[in-house]
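TA notes, week 10

Several of you asked for a full example with nothing omitted. So below is the full record: structure tokens for the whole chain, then the designed sequence directly under it. When grading your own attempts, check the secondary structure regions first.
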């Protein structure tokens, strides 16, 4: 090993006296930064001096001198290593061959001189320096690295203890991470060389010789040293450490064993599986389970997860099968079970044991999935499949749902496996599966804390926040539902009998009647008995879905099929059983509104599933119409639940009208008077009144056998109130201005009301109660809102269009009913929408005193609940809202609820109208007033109110006939992108400012809540962009025309500058929005757009220039911010694509890059030459070239930021179990979001 310090650095090395002085100065500066008594200005000067030393020519040699001096403190030695690191990372490319050799020599000398007593972070830093050098020259200038590693490794333990071996292990671990597993830019530049070299030194001898004989250019004998290979050496060392710890009681060897596992873990992610089999890696990894050390077992389990989680491939079938079979050996299944039993603990009592249980469950899940995908595994003679399946059931029933969920997920796959052996094994587990999944459909997030339920205790321990529990439990229940549906689909009779009998037992014994303890005064939808019945309803509902799937399967059988007769018999038996159950249930009374609602839904679901004889349908409908719950207004929560039941009854009746219109038509004359009675009874509830009328309307509209003219006449008679309401001149006059609109809905003179009641002087609106007059004003607003024709129109239009097939007789009838009234509705409707948005525009309240403007602003701030955001359950949220109805907050809720209802019902009306394509899209000059109504004041709405606008626009695009697209879509899309880009960009600026002001609040503050909502809105818009560019609709037969007149949506977007410009501006701004999911999606969008702008036909060059400037700037800015560290792969890929495709066509990308601080023109041109050569490199190397080019822009590596300062997040469950289901332009001048980085591009 080279030991001389002679080298190129000597040319600027100072004389000995000055060297000593500089080292002393460095020592003093370091001590000053650590001494709390030193004044801040001195400390700052010391830090500045230490930074300056890094850039000095003699910095590296100073670094070596400090790091190699054992007499220095650990802090000083570590600083010396940092000086060397700076030279290697940022000055290597400027060094000549002799200088790089000197740097390499210093690193080798440091590695060779480590001692066991050296601090671990010192040793690890030396290992990192070794890897940084290796990434730059190993395999070319540096050919003996493996020999040096082996020399370090083979040093006897009695000389240096374990220090050398731990050093080599860390070097190998880091090499695997940087070269193979991560997006390291430096490694990416030499990926082929480093990848081949690492593989050559890692694989065991047998595989190495095999590859050497088959390789085209022969094996690389100059890289590898020794026969064994590092994979074998690490496994042997690990086994020795475990043996010494277990047999000889050498506890310090456990630490070495864990470090060996850390080195194996990244290697197992890429190494050839045949090599893993050759070194018996599975045998090694099960050794810790013969010990009782939890930390060692956990580390081994993590490595097992990596190697067993490798995807299956036909080319490595034998190796993959061998690894799985070794892991599934009966003795090892027994070992895992023993470990799980031994580490069982109560919630919060032992985190280490609980962590091991979670990781073992994940490994079992991998093994179970392997069996599901490759059933031949269970046919092996040396596999005890029943014991393994019993172990899966054991883990499934764990009281910790986080431990249970990986195995639960695997059961969903096993249930779907088409293999007789697996089916037999699963059959034995069906009872336990159904029982476990049934119990766990309980809404645990609604169960009160502090109880003795173990599952709830574990949930509280595993998840710090309610949103996390919401997300996790939603996924857990989804898997339970899948299990129940799949079991019922395969064994319908047994499953249905079991789950229905459980529901009957609950009804018979539960406290759901006054005689069994039900008390309206203490009613709660989240009481445990109600939650239990809700869980059982979910079981029955999903069992019926599974049965419906079985019916579909049975219907596909031909009469000559062997199973046809049995299927028909089973179907008849199931139908009879379900009918008998219905007869039994309708004779059972309940006083609980929630339970009654669930029973009602179950009855309707059964009817729609089995499609029984008309007499049975009529019997059930009669029961639904006569079900009676007695309201008690004195108990608000109970009374609200009764009202909710009445609303649900209407909806369920409408479902039956759609499914059984012919049967109900037979008794229409009996139904009509009964419905009349209900309409009269609920006359003060327009929602119920029009719901019942819609029930009758749907029967007449959908039943067959009615004369066409008679049907049309009766339906028009039913719609007459709708026609008359929209044609009312007084109603039209009330929409003439914002003021008259406010008067018509009871919102006029709000400022006077607020001032009279002192809203501006009472900060706690939720507790301040309204007096009688205030409540009367509140009721007046509700009455006027109900008097608007929106609800009746929405109900009847929805009823008309529900599951309506174009071209059918019902469709033609619908067109005839609405074609004349749509042109009358739209002008008033659009004006109403315009005012309902303008109400939120603060400019319309600017004449008020400042304090009242603040009251109006607060009035318009929503209280909302959203899964994954709110810190309370949905039921708790609604209970809190219900309790404040008569308060100042309740009044504010009515005010904002009025305009919200107008907007959302208006959106629904427009969407329903699009079902009648010609009657809606064919109206002349509709696009401009529609755009004005939807977007004129859209930026005044809060973020959570803009989702319906985006959803409506999506529907308008989807349903627009191709021949109307060119006329209809551009005005709509232009306004949407301009308004929402300004809105979303502005909101992100507000969030950014708020986050800077509030850095110490650990709670989910209002700012964080607003940010969560803004992220959802941003993603909705990003998804809309993707939808526009991917959406294609083939012209229908009736509207077929010349392709030139029926363009695709994508073509319109890309060819019309009025749409393309605001779309690309929004996408550019999205690159700077701090939401990784949105930014990643926009990167993909841009990567699909960049290749489209290569020609010189207008407006392509202008778009290309914009992308080459503003998009490139946004990418570079985001790339060099810590927040976007996890996105460097996507951003670098987009930058590389821009350079690859545009740099040969325009100098702009080069000019932008050259404007960056400290950007070398020579390095830039060299990089562009590599990127733009005739045969460009692969994608990862393109990314590496970009990252290397931009490495020194700010002197901070994004890769290092992501690597060195990971977010400290409590590990609970795998990310797939924590996902929350999401709801699916700038004026010329300075662009928002770029001012703060103008100097970065030489603009300021």
């Amino acid at each position: 090993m080279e030991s001389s310090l002679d080298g190129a650095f000597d040319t600027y090395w100072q004389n000995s006296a000055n060297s000593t002085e500089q080292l002393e100065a460095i020592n003093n500066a370091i001590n000053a930064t650590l001494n709390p008594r030193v004044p801040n200005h001195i400390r700052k000067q010391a830090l500045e001096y230490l930074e300056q030393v890094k850039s000095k020519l003699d910095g590296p040699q100073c670094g070596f001198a400090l790091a190699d001096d054992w007499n220095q403190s650990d802090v000083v030695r570590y600083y010396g290593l940092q000086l060397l690191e700076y030279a290697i990372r940022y000055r290597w490319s400027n060094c000549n061959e002799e200088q790089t050799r000197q740097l390499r020599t210093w690193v080798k000398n440091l590695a060779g001189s480590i001692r066991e007593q050296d601090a671990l972070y010192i040793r690890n830093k030396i290992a990192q320096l070794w890897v940084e050098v290796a990434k730059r020259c190993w395999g070319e200038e540096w050919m003996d690295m493996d020999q040096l590693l082996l020399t370090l490794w083979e040093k006897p333990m009695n000389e240096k203890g374990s220090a050398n071996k731990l050093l080599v292990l860390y070097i190998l671990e880091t090499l695997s991470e940087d070269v193979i597993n991560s997006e390291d830019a430096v490694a990416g530049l030499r990926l082929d060389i480093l990848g081949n070299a690492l593989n050559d030194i890692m694989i065991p001898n047998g595989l190495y010789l095999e590859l050497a004989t088959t390789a085209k250019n022969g094996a690389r004998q100059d890289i590898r040293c020794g026969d064994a290979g590092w994979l074998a050496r690490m496994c042997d060392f690990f086994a020795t450490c475990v043996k010494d710890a277990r047999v000889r009681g050498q506890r310090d060897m456990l630490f070495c064993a864990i470090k060996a596992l850390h080195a194996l873990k990244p290697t197992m992610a890429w190494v050839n599986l045949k090599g893993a089999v050759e070194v018996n890696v599975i045998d090694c990894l099960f050794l810790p389970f013969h010990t009782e050390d939890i930390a060692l077992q956990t580390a081994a389990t993590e490595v097992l997860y990596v190697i067993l989680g490798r995807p299956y491939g036909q080319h490595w079938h034998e190796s993959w099968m061998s690894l799985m079979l070794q892991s599934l050996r009966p003795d090892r299944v027994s070992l895992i079970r023993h470990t799980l039993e031994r580490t069982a603990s109560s919630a919060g009592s032992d985190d280490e044991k609980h962590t091991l249980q979670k990781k073992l469950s994940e490994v079992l899940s991998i093994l179970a999935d392997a069996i599901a995908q490759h059933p031949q595994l269970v046919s092996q003679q040396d596999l005890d499949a029943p014991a393994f399946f019993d172990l899966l059931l054991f883990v499934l029933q764990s009281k910790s749902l986080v431990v249970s969920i990986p195995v639960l997920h695997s059961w969903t796959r096993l249930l779907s496996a088409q293999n007789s052996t697996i089916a037999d094994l699963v059959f034995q587990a069906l009872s336990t599966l159904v029982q476990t999944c049934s119990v766990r459909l309980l809404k645990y997030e609604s169960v009160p804390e502090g109880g003795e339920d173990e599952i709830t205790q574990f949930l509280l321990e595993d998840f710090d926040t309610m949103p996390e529990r919401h997300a996790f439990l939603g996924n857990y229940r989804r898997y339970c539902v899948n299990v129940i549906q799949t079991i019922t689909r395969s064994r319908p009779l047994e499953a249905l009998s079991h789950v229905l009998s459980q529901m009957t037992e609950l009804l018979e014994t539960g406290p759901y009647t006054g005689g069994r303890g039900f008390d309206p005064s203490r009613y709660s939808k989240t009481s445990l008995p109600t939650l239990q019945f809700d869980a059982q309803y979910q079981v029955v509902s999903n069992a019926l879905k599974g049965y419906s799937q079985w019916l579909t399967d049975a219907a596909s059988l031909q009469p000559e099929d062997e199973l046809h007769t049995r299927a028909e018999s089973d179907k008849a038996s199931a139908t009879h059983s379900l009918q008998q159950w219905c007869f039994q249930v309708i004779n059972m009374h309940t006083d609980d509104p929630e339970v009654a609602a669930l029973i009602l839904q179950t009855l309707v679901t059964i009817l729609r599933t089995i499609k029984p004889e008309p007499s049975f349908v009529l019997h059930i409908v009669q029961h639904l119409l006569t079900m009676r719950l007695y309201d008690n207004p004195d108990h608000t929560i109970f009374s609200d639940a009764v009202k909710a039941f009445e609303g649900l009854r209407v909806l369920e009746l409408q479902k039956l009208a759609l499914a059984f219109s012919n049967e109900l038509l037979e008794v229409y004359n009996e139904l009509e008077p009964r419905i009349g009675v209900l309409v009269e009874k609920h006359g003060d509830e327009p929602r119920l009144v029009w719901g019942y009328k819609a029930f009758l309307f749907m029967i007449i509209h959908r039943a067959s056998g009615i004369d066409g003219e008679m049907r049309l006449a009766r339906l028009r008679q039913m719609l007459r109130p709708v026609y008359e309401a929209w044609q009312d001149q007084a109603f039209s006059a009330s929409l003439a201005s914002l003021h008259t609109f406010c008067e018509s809905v009871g919102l006029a003179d709000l400022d006077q009301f607020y001032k009279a009641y002192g809203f501006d002087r009472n900060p706690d609106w939720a507790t301040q109660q309204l007096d009688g007059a205030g409540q009367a004003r509140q009721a007046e607003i509700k009455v006027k809102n109900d008097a608007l024709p929106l609800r009746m129109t929405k109900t009847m239009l929805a009823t008309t269009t529900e599951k309506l097939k174009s071209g059918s007789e019902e469709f033609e009838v619908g067109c005839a009913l609405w074609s004349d009234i749509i042109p009358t509705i739209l002008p008033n409707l659009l004006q109403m929408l315009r005012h309902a948005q303008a109400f939120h525009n603060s400019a319309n309240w600017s004449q008020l005193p400042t304090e009242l403007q603040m009251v109006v602003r607060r009035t318009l701030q929503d209280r909302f609940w959203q899964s994954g955001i709110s810190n309370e359950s949905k039921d708790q949220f609604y209970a809190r809202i219900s309790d404040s109805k008569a308060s100042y907050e309740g009044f504010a809720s009515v005010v904002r609820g009025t305009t919200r209802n107008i907007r959302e019902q208006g959106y629904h009306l427009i969407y329903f109208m699009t079902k009648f394509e010609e009657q809606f899209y064919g109206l002349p000059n509709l696009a401009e007033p529609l755009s004005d109504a939807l977007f004129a004041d859209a930026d005044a709405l809060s973020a959570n109110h803009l989702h319906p606008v985006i959803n409506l626009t999506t529907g308008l695009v989807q349903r627009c006939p191709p021949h109307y697209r060119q006329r209809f879509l551009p005005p709509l899309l232009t306004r949407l992108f301009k308004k929402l880009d300004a809105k979303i960009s502005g909101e992100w600026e507000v969030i950014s400012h708020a986050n800077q002001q509030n850095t110490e609040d650990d709670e989910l503050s209002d700012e964080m809540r607003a940010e969560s909502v803004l992220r959802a809105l941003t993603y909705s818009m990003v998804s809309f962009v993707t939808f526009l560019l991917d959406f294609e609709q083939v012209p229908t037969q009736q509207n077929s025309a010349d392709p030139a007149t029926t363009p695709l949506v994508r073509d319109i977007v890309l060819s019309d500058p009025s749409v393309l410009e605001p779309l690309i501006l929004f996408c550019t701004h999205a690159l700077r929005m701090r939401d990784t999911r949105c930014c990643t999606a926009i990167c993909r969008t841009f990567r699909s757009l960049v290749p489209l702008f290569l020609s010189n036909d207008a407006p392509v060059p202008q778009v290309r220039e914009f992308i080459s400037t503003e998009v490139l700037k946004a990418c570079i800015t985001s790339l060099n911010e810590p927040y976007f560290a996890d996105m460097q792969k996507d951003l670098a890929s987009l930058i590389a694509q821009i350079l690859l495709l545009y740099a040969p066509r325009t100098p702009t990308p080069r000019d932008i890059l050259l404007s960056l601080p400290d950007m070398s023109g020579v390095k830039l041109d060299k990089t562009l030459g590599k990127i733009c050569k005739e045969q460009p490199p692969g994608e990862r190397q393109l990314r590496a070239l970009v990252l290397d080019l931009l490495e020194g822009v700010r002197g901070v590596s994004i890769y290092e930021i992501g690597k060195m300062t990971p977010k400290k997040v409590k590990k609970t469950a795998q990310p797939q179990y924590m996902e929350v289901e999401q709801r699916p332009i700038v004026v010329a001048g300075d662009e928002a979001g770029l001012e703060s980085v103008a100097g970065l591009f030489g603009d300021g």
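The chain has a mean pLDDT of 88. Use that as a sanity check on your answer.
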